[in-house]
Amino acid sequence: MDNRPIGFLDSGVGGLTVVKEMFKQLPEEEIIFIGDQARAPYGPRPAEQIREYTWQMVNFLLTQNVKMIVIACNTATAVVWKEIKEQLSIPVLGVILPGASAAIKSTQTGKIGVIGTPMTVKSDTYRDKIQRLAPEMEVESLSCPKFAPIVESNQMTSSVAKKVVYETLAPLVGKVDTLILGCTHYPLLRPIIQNVMGQSVKLIDSGAETVHDISVLLNYFEINRNRKQKEAQHHFYTTASPKGFKEIAEQWMGRKITVEHIDL
Amino acid sequence: MDNRPIGFLDSGVGGLTVVKEMFKQLPEEEIIFIGDQARAPYGPRPAEQIREYTWQMVNFLLTQNVKMIVIACNTATAVVWKEIKEQLSIPVLGVILPGASAAIKSTQTGKIGVIGTPMTVKSDTYRDKIQRLAPEMEVESLSCPKFAPIVESNQMTSSVAKKVVYETLAPLVGKVDTLILGCTHYPLLRPIIQNVMGQSVKLIDSGAETVHDISVLLNYFEINRNRKQKEAQHHFYTTASPKGFKEIAEQWMGRKITVEHIDL
């Protein structure tokens, strides 16, 4: 038993898709979330900058006495997960391996698509992880630089969103039977993505898969929170305006939260 | 990547239910299995003896250069998992936490049954783990001392087996909606158990659940076996006669294996 919170970090609001899944699967766990909205999206930034910003969030979470850190951002996972995991004494999870592993189990044709930010696609981490586990898989990666900004600006249901998703995903349609939503922002665009790709394509939400792994690791390291404790008090921080964050977060998660501003 | 084998240990043949699931879910992994058939079942033995015997198997597996150890025996897990895990530098998994965790997710009524050996039931480890994770659950434990010997003597489909299962489980019928098969031998009696408990009762195979956790931990520790390696060569050892082991093992797993005798 360990009643300390779990720390989640993301470049912006995308990591909330993982938090939403936490509320569903592990409601007893306490969460501290930080989104670096002031500097989102991370996708187009150089690796060294992503590394620096991510470490700043990690260091903030460590001051909050977290028992585990979840890098709820594919871009940051691709660039710096391994380094952070090796340097900290608490468990550190990324979102890429759980997504890659789930896609391998899901595909029937061996043709897996991955959509992500420019940095995630450029790093080729998904292809690397998938083909290490299963060299026979074919992986089609596609960079979707416009998706995360649409979510960050809360335009998920706009006609612009539909047009952008339709045009961006066109090269993948009909080519894969499984598509990894390789950015934690993308589940907020899920209905449009599913519509464009076709109902038979299995969409893998890397964030939701990650929560299952969090559950296994909480058990393995015996650091679950005791349910007899008082109700979990979650904390949300953003480097930008709490108002904008709160609006998207409450809409997406269907619950009221308090959001504080933080400078890193 | 880590191409070394995973070590499995059990008091006898029960742990093969976990190995069978490994072949299904993680066929690329190489397995070294040891069953202490000469001294099975462990269930009625005193804790100190179970501890001693289990450590003997662990030490044998360590000489085989394994990358992970799976205690594929509920009794040994209940008595000595924590100690072994704390003392080794490689990951060590037991079968109890995965089963407990799966049962909590499965139950609708909050009434969970656990069947196991006398030692597993006496240790109350399942109740302890379940109620730590979810204090609101009611747990009914039942010792089934005759089940493992039926499996070890390959009498799974006999009329004696049916009678014993029927009589033993009677106190649980109608009282739980989820039943943990809290001994890795019991999945070999699954059709009879399901029939006695009723089709609506969800049977939790702690061994099968464990394989999912193995998969997550292989990913987390980045010690998956490279699939480009030559085909996995599995090794099976028993402290008793290889003939008897081989007979049950091949029948249960539906594949030919070689079995060697080993003295501990």
Automatic annotation (TrEMBL), chains A, B:
One of its GO terms (molecular function) is identical protein binding. GO terms for biological process: cell wall organization; peptidoglycan biosynthetic process; regulation of cell shape. Pathway: Cell wall biogenesis; peptidoglycan biosynthesis. NCBIfam families: glut_race, PRK00865.1-3. Belongs to the aspartate/glutamate racemases family. This is Glutamate racemase. The gene is murI. It comes from Streptococcus hyointestinalis. Its EC number is 5.1.1.3. The active site is at residues 73, 183.
